[in-house]
Specification:
By secondary structure, this protein is mainly α. It has helices at residues 2-15, 23-35, 46-55, 59-64, 80-92, 96-122, 124-136, 139-144, 150-170, 173-190, 198-208, 213-240, 257-271, 285-296, 302-318, 349-352, 356-367, 378-399, 412-431, 440-456, 460-463, 466-484, 491-517, 627-635, 649-659, 678-686, 704-712; strands at residues 275-276, 282-283, 562-563, 569-570, 645-646, 664-665, 692-695, 715-716, 731-732, 735-736, 738-741. It starts with a helix and ends with a strand.
């Protein structure tokens, strides 16, 4: 106990010291990467931005995280992060940057927290290197520059980690409760993803605390119970509320938060079955949108079909490069194929894996000589914590059926911690000529440089040969020189070690800059020279959206389409080449019409593309509104609650953002939620709640009967009254869009 008290006093004394001047530029770099030009993203992820717009309008919408101002359906995530975004928008005004700001600040906060966590045990230089690696991990700023949840989630879990470390140092049970309660808060940000760190928390507390096993079990059991209570608190309130007094729980099939947590946002992420049709029949995630698209496609001429087939064959042929573990390297959403080497495949490796070989060598060095039965030093205990965070999360991403690239931010803290702590440890072993351990530093540098060359090689057409050859050559030279100079002790050796770290962080730094240089994608954030495309892979793999990892599946705020080889989006098969993809613009984070297409006609829910605009409407391909359609709907509204109804959130979000008026996404986010029935819709129409319906062929699953009934019982509005162009069959979000009117007495 005296030892613990002395540690607390030492911590207080350390906190009184002046600010680490080396930390300041690192924090400024993190701030630049996370904040610079976020004000150019007007809509961010339109699906979530629309929810913030709705949540600003009433406490009812705020509490339930309603997607639309009418309180029809919620978004597909719990509300805590969106509560924070809504508060930010309330303070600073409703803008794209104001909903992004909390995540950007969380990214900076994570850098500071990691410094505190690593520095205290492993030393100041370990802390500096760790946070430098964290700040320059490409996926960290890429996610933090959007209104997606993951940056805030990681920050919250690092706060929980700080509480746990303090609980062990002070032997105070209150801090244990606080740490696990914070994980419960994180659950209400992104559900089961927050529980990925639990193995680390349990292992560390058991190994690091010097109390009896009886107390350990009692304390952990109590803390876990509190965590579970906090986790399900919001879910219990929502699920206990009558369905007619709250919005439908978006992306669930039974209108239940708990089903959403353990199904769509839980086990289905591991299995890949993330889609359930209204009839309850599960479909693989990668085929859901393809099925819907095939059901709604219009007959196209044979030349268009032939061209598309040719493009697909070329794309398939261009992607036969095998991953280290075998198989095609793209996978759904360009996340590679499951296997032990998945994190080294294209699409994932350039987001998170730049320093993984060095981390592996660091783990070997940090645990060298450790006996299973102990005793363990503080460094070894905390190294065990970071290892217990790293391994389960890495295993999940290696085998999971469905996730997005930006989820990989969960790996950033342990990788950065090991990079910083390991660099100091390996350097010490190297300088002390500690037998075989002294070879770990040059070995780590050499293998890491080799991996970085492999990561960059598919991007040679974008970045050129020079940086690839430079990293490879310098990595080999520095590793060999350090190996040769092992027996010498002078300042040159120190400079060589510092130069090696600079070389290994140079290209991650460039990759981290790419969302600023090339523009980012707020729907599916990723880093790299093609970051604005949202494809998350090298240009050569983005020939077709199905081949580049999308497989026809529609992310929040996006719509299906085919990507050309220059990372531009083409209209679906059978569409007119004169039509522009919704929200299309130049390569500033927006989708563009295919090469050679005419810009003389627009999508029905898109306004003119303005490539010179200072704002990026990157929340979706149709993250703009058709002003003529909006004017028509507004003028002819006779008191209806909803401005119009549409099949899914893609069409609805831009109009909610623009007007703040209720727009009904009948099938929720993707159009497949079994929310509406024909009888319910009839009742709504009779009550005068809705009369206009914009249908674009997205109705599927539980919505097919509703769509059929609408078409059979409505009056089609002539396109000349609401379309921005003279074309009578312009493409909507996915198929030919048509406006209908229904009035029942």
């Amino acid at each position: 106990m005296k030892h613990m008290n002395s540690e607390v006093k030492e911590e207080r004394t350390s906190n009184k010291k002046r600010i680490d001047l080396f930390l300041v530029p690192i924090v400024l770099i993190a701030a630049f990467l996370n904040l610079f030009k976020i004000w150019t993203d007007e809509y961010a992820n339109a699906y979530y931005t629309a929810a913030v717009k709705s949540m600003l309008q009433s406490f009812h919408n705020f509490f339930y995280a309603s997607f639309d101002p009418g309180g029809y359906v919620t978004i597909d995530k719990p509300p805590v992060v969106f509560w924070i975004q809504t508060i930010s928008a309330k303070i600073f005004g409703f803008h794209g940057w104001s909903v992004i700001l909390p995540q950007a600040l969380a990214g900076i906060g994570s850098v500071l927290l990691l410094y505190v966590l690593v520095k205290r045990t492993f030393g100041v230089w370990a802390g500096r290197l760790a946070v430098f690696a964290m700040a320059l991990t490409p996926i960290v700023p890429a996610v933090s520059r959007t209104n997606n949840i993951d940056s805030m989630l990681v920050f919250t879990l690092l706060v929980a980690t700080w509480m746990l470390f303090r609980a062990v140092r002070t032997a105070k049970f209150g801090w244990v409760l606080a740490a696990f309660a914070m994980i419960g808060v994180a659950f209400n940000m992104k559900m089961l993803q927050a529980y990925m760190v639990l193995p680390a928390f349990y292992v560390f507390y058991v190994v690091a605390t010097k109390i009896t096993w009886k107390k350990k079990i009692a304390f952990l059991t109590t803390a876990t119970a509190l965590m579970l209570a906090v986790s399900v608190s919001w879910a219990v309130v929502v699920d206990s509320t009558s369905a007619d007094k709250r919005p439908y729980m978006g992306s669930s099939q039974t209108n239940s938060v708990l089903e959403l947590a353990f199904g769509y946002n839980g086990i289905n992420r591991l299995t890949g079955n993330t889609s359930v049709t209204g009839s309850g029949h599960k479909q693989p995630a990668q085929t859901e949108q393809q099925t819907a698209s095939s059901e709604t496609k219009q007959t196209s001429n044979s030349s268009a079909d032939s061209s598309q087939s040719s493009n697909q064959r070329k794309s398939s042929s261009s992607q036969k490069m095998q991953a280290p573990g075998g198989g095609n390297q793209n996978g759904m959403f360009n996340t590679g194929n499951p296997g032990p080497f998945r994190l080294f495949q294209k699409g994932l490796s350039d987001q998170i894996s730049w320093l993984l070989p060095f981390v592996i060598f660091s783990i070997v060095g940090l645990f060298a000589g450790v006996k299973f039965k102990g005793p363990y030093t503080t460094k070894q205990k905390e190294s065990l914590f970071w290892l217990a965070w790293l391994l389960p999360v890495a295993v999940f991403f290696s085998i999971a059926g469905f996730f997005h690239q930006y989820y990989l931010i969960m790996l950033a803290p342990p990788i950065a911690a090991f990079a910083g702590a390991g660099a100091v440890a390996l350097w010490s072993m190297y300088k002390q000529h500690n037998g075989w351990k002294s070879w770990l530093l040059p070995g780590g540098i050499l293998t890491t440089a080799a991996l970085q060359v492999y990561i960059m090689s598919p991007y040679v057409s974008s970045i050129g040969v020079a940086p690839i050859a430079g990293v490879g050559a310098l990595g080999v030279i520095l590793a060999l020189v350090l190996a040769v100079r092992k027996q010498r002790k002078n300042s040159l050796t120190n400079y060589l070690g510092a130069a090696a770290m600079v070389v290994l962080l140079a290209m991650p730094a460039y990759w981290a800059m790419t969302p600023i240089i090339y523009g980012g994608n707020s729907m599916l954030p990723s880093a790299g020279p093609d970051s604005s495309s949202g494809m998350g892979g090298p240009p050569s793999t983005a020939t077709n959206s199905k081949q580049s990892g999308f497989n026809g599946m529609q992310p929040p705020g996006s719509s299906s389409g085919n990507s050309s080889s220059n990372n531009q989006m083409q209209p679906p098969s059978g569409s007119s080449n004169g039509g522009q993809m919704p929200g299309g613009s130049s390569n500033n984070g927006q989708m563009q019409p295919p090469s050679g297409s005419s810009n003389n006609s627009q999508m029905p829910n898109s306004s003119s593309s303005k490539s010179s605009s200072s704002k990026r409407k990157s929340g979706g391909m149709n993250a703009e509104v058709n002003q003529k359609l909006l004017n028509y709907l507004t003028k002819n509204n006779t008191g209806e609650k909803y401005l119009f109804a549409t099949t899914d959130s893609t069409s609805a979000a831009p109009y909610i953002i623009k007007t703040g008026k209720p727009v009904m996404a009948m099938g929720g986010f993707s159009g497949s939620d079994p929310i509406l029935t024909v009888s319910k819709l009839k009742a709504m129409i009779k009550k005068g709640e809705v009369k206009y319906f914009y249908l674009s062929g997205m109705g599927k699953g539980g919505q097919s009967d509703v769509i059929t009934w609408i078409k059979d019982n409505s009056k089609e509005i002539p396109s000349s009254k609401w379309q921005s162009t003279s074309s009578s069959a312009q493409q909507g979000p996915s198929g030919n869009g048509t406006l209908y009117e229904i009035t029942l007495k």
